Amino acid sequence: MKIKSSDFIISAVGEKQYPKDDLPEFALAGRSNVGKSSLINTIVNRKKLARTSQQPGKTQTLNFYLINEDLYLVDVPGYGYAKVSKKQRAKFGEMIQDYLETRADLKGLVLLVDARHDPTNDDINMYNYALMLDIPILVVATKMDKLKKMEASQIEQKIGKSLDLNHEQVSFLPFSSVTKLNVDKFWDWIEANM
Ligand code: GDP
């Protein structure tokens, strides 16, 4: 898919603020620092559409980005940051859940995990929750440029030990914002699910 335009539309805290034009939406979720902002910037070929290295836990909003006037990417707050209070964490969960469970325009969920580490309990919980939503899931292993060739070739098996990737609704994609690995394949998955 050729990216002709990408625009930040709104930081929403609730349903009333979500876009009303009924375009297909794809949510992006992952632990704080997993590389989600970097991925967004990389796939739209912009330096600062999404803000990178924000203070973890600070992004408490759903950020909507309109792509080519055709679809929305929805940046979901990063989860699993230890210094965020339990109360705050519960609040994130509530907002994310409200959105993910009720949004009719939601066509798929991109779950980012760090290729360098085993998925955490938070990753596993989020993944199992996503499976329950019964929508297409793309598991993206970020920061692939940090792996040695041998590790890189086995990344799907490694992640697969923690997240059972053998579901019809699930696809897997290694990714790097540094080398731009698989940017095209990312968009192929989006297009296939629009
Ligand atoms: P976010 O909190 O998930 O939005 O994560 P960011 O996009 O802000 O990235 C967190 C840190 O990881 C930053 O220091 C990035 O430069 C770094 N990072 C993100 N993506 C990659 C990548 O593909 N490769 C490498 N080597 N570093 C990355």
Automatic annotation (TrEMBL):
Keywords, comma-separated and alphabetical: Cell cycle, Cell division, GTP-binding, Magnesium, Metal-binding, Nucleotide-binding, Septation
- List residues of the EngB-type G domain: 22-194
GO CC field: cytosol
Q: Which InterPro entries match?
A: G_ENGB_dom (IPR030393), GTP-bd (IPR006073), GTP-bd_ribosome_bio_YsxC (IPR019987), P-loop_NTPase (IPR027417)
Q: Does the keyword Nucleotidyltransferase apply?
A: no
What Pfam family is a match, any one? Answer: MMR_HSR1
Q: Which SUPFAM superfamilies is this protein grouped with?
A: P-loop containing nucleoside triphosphate hydrolases
Example GO biological process term?
Answer: division septum assembly
Q: Which GO terms describe its molecular function?
A: GTP binding; metal ion binding
Q: Which cofactor does it need?
A: Mg(2+)
PROSITE patterns cross-referenced by the UniProt entry? G_ENGB
- Give the record's family classification: Belongs to the TRAFAC class TrmE-Era-EngA-EngB-Septin-like GTPase superfamily. EngB GTPase family.
Question: According to its UniProt entry, what is the function of this protein?
Answer: Necessary for normal cell division and for the maintenance of normal septation.
> What is the official name of this protein in its record?
Probable GTP-binding protein EngB
